[in-house]
């Protein structure tokens, strides 16, 4: 980092430039002495993260404020000016902004000097060709920095120089494009009028053709027109931009402006300024029609179209109502509608969100002008594609309408629904729609249907949108309108019913009424779900459904004026009247929550009487009967009386009704059934619950796919082909066809019919037939052909019927699964609102059955939804519930039996994930049996105080048979620790031990027994893991007396130390050793913390005896990762016994191999290193080392060396001197010289022969023989040579760097070369 920073600091000013600028070269080196914090500011300023840049700029300014006159300010200016022209384009604006803030903070810095420094640094006359572009951008960003500082407008001299510089930059259009001209316009827009008058003649030519040649000059002209019109008129004379001669030029300029902002996707400022000028000169219609619609749109240029759209959105707040009508019915809005329809493809750019922002801003800004709001909203709603408006039915901008405008808009929608005025719409058809010659697509009835469908959905969306401010009268008006046109027709208008006075210009079709009916029930859901009421309601706060029912009853009573689309029968009318009578009776019990739920259900089913009269009529009768019985106030009957009674209890009937409502594909009915069931679930009987469970029981709702056999078409075609061969080839072919038919696996009935037809036509003769040689005549062949054709036609119909039946069964399966998902809502309500009900216990096994079946066949998304919902209810709402049943005195034996059954089923599962659900169910039942109301949540560990209290008297207040339950879990635990593929897991038993420590105490001997013995290594490892986690639990210790606890710890110690460590041959055995050591560490830690009196000397001696074998296995490299882990665990255990791990042994075990290592182990040690031929050589150091390998004579001149070499030589000399004096040399950071392998020696010899030099060996007898020949008096250069060779070997990555033999030879060599 320091080298990089020094390079960056040295970059801005070269030595020559520093001399020219007057700064001495020494100052540049002095700046490098600044703090690292100061230099890092300039690195952070150029980073892409905005927060980092801003923070670095603020810190730089704070730093400079403390030293305003020091060298730091000069250096900072120089660095920022240099950054304006760096090669990274993203860094230039960062330095420009930092320079602007610096100039803004320190106003004593003259701007002209900064401008001169920029010109001097990036001289456009002397800059190299490759640096022209960065130099141009440096000038541009420099001027922008002066402008952004806010001081340029006040400094006349700097302003004039900046303007001249920008005019020079405009000549380099290839690099800068229009950026200098845009910067010039931005600067001149801020200057005072007096200054602008002086500058204007210098920047704007007196030629109108130049003004209309580019968007920048036109924008400058419009700026002068706005600020100094007199000066502009004196310069150019009277100019009419919207004349016939100038309009084509304006179109071209706007097209260029649209192309320039194509990537930015924004409105050019010149377009909006032209619009304002047109409005100012009262020439807006001419500008809009001739420049935009007849000019720019005709170019068929997509950016030009988007410019028109943006100009339309931006013009909305500037236009009057009359001008809005002109704009919203022209070609621009027509073109915008086509874009909305054709841009629905995913890869197309969509302008709709941008237009929504424009419209939302306009509506929010003119809430005081409802007429203009209404005009814009009606105009956008009138853009239709063959009758269907292009804006969505749920439009977010509607929320900005004022109440008055919203009321008028709803009235316009209602009138358009009743009397569609197609001529007032801006309707269009796309090119593909125009190519379609189908006459039915262009009739008015189709357009009316599409328009009415959109209008009714828009009305409903306005009511459903909670962000729209609407009055109660408006909501009631929309609801009555939808209800009336869903089920009623007008016979004779009356003033008492305003809906009858609304005439229809086009009669309502049946499909239109279906759409209105569906929208009405969607609206009813929004009004009725969860008994939502409007705060300003009257009539005693009645719900919306009740008010609509009253309106419906009024319509039924005016049968002279109104009639239903489907007339009521006498029975249906009687059911309606009885429903109203029941509603009045329920008002007397309005304080009861149950009565409110019944009222809600009765109202919704009553309204459904118009949609499905037959079903709703029967449901109404049953609901009314249930309501009457539930409100009688009689005590709840027992189960025996309910069974003996001829009439089922009311709650069972109501559950059947709710199940029938859930079968309907209506989200409203689903919510109603859920809320009603929440009020009656406290009265639920076992029979009523069984009705719900029958739906979820897969045994009764299983698929019947296996009973359907569908024949493939390929079999049928092959039979037909063989039969054709019979008809074409005579009796031989017929015999072959008969054999094929007999051999082929086809329907037996079809085979018999085919054989009968062939035999009747004598096409299938026997072997002994006398007419074998005879051929069939033409008439016989024709008759046979006709019979075969009819036979195959019947077979084809049968096959198609079977296919249809299978498809029907598949659809029924989908509906059944969807019905089960809906019924789970009732189960969720029951376990949520009645968790202490004993009926909840009956849900366990049915839910587990659903989970198990869904796990097996969860292929489709619907099956997965069913599985996820069932698992969520079972886990979160049932097993983890805070409350549970406390009254199980009559079900104790059944619950114990259920625990045994569930544990056995969990042990027999094929999947551990399914077994987990069964095991959790047993834990829930144990919690219920324990019956402790102060019990903690199942998944939370209770505190030690509570655990100790429960441990002292585990069965004092519970009905849990501990002995029986212990036997159940003992068998499951034994199976888990002996069975090869057991679905049970360690976390399951840990959860059991944590929640029920008393059971853990009884089950621990089984776990201790399986730590060793005939079990497999994997099971033994699991036993060690389970025992380790169990001993670490704080809830277990209070269950034992002190002596019992010591005895248990002693047994665990004896079991763990029975096996010898370091002898693992397989992965499972290695895992067993690791688990055993982890268990031993846990036991030793327990002994240490609880200060137990156990003799550990035997264990200490045993572990000390294992150290050599563990160290040998680690050094051999067998199971490298496991061996090192085992070795670490071993020393952790020894630490608890008071033996510390020796540091030297740890270092030697990792770095220094033994001398008696075999070649095989050396090869194994080299595994993972690159071969020598693949390593990158450092040529220069190597050559230098080869040259230095020759020991120099005292009179030989040494080449100049760098500082590093001198330091290394000093260290080598000091080392040699210490050896002469008989003192041990100090440890050096350079590694010892490696001992080369034979291959490396041969390779280095070849390299030295090729280079013409005799390379000396770093070890061995050859070096010892050669050194005396070239020895000299004085200091020997050999230590330095050895250190260089050692560094070279370290750079090469030689695998034998750390051999101890080479180190000893190096010491011998050093001693041998001393005089």
From TrEMBL:
Cellular compartments annotated: Nucleus
Q: Where is the composition biased (Low complexity)?
A: 1213-1237
Q: Where is this region: Disordered?
A: 1-29, 1141-1315
Q: Which GO terms describe its cellular component?
A: B-WICH complex; cytoplasm; NLS-dependent protein nuclear import complex
One GO MF term: transcription corepressor activity
| Compositionally biased spans, kind Basic and acidic residues | 1142-1153, 1180-1189
This protein's UniProt keywords: Nucleus
Entries under InterPro entries matching the protein: ARM-type_fold, DNA_pol_V/MYBBP1A
* Predominant localisation class: nucleus
Write out the biased-composition intervals (Basic residues).
1162-1179, 1203-1212
Q: Where is the composition biased (Polar residues)?
A: 1247-1256
Question: Which family does the similarity line name?
Answer: Belongs to the MYBBP1A family.
PANTHER family per the UniProt record, alphabetical: MYB-BINDING PROTEIN 1A (PTHR13213:SF2), MYB-BINDING PROTEIN 1A FAMILY MEMBER (PTHR13213)
The identity of this protein, by name, is MYB binding protein 1a
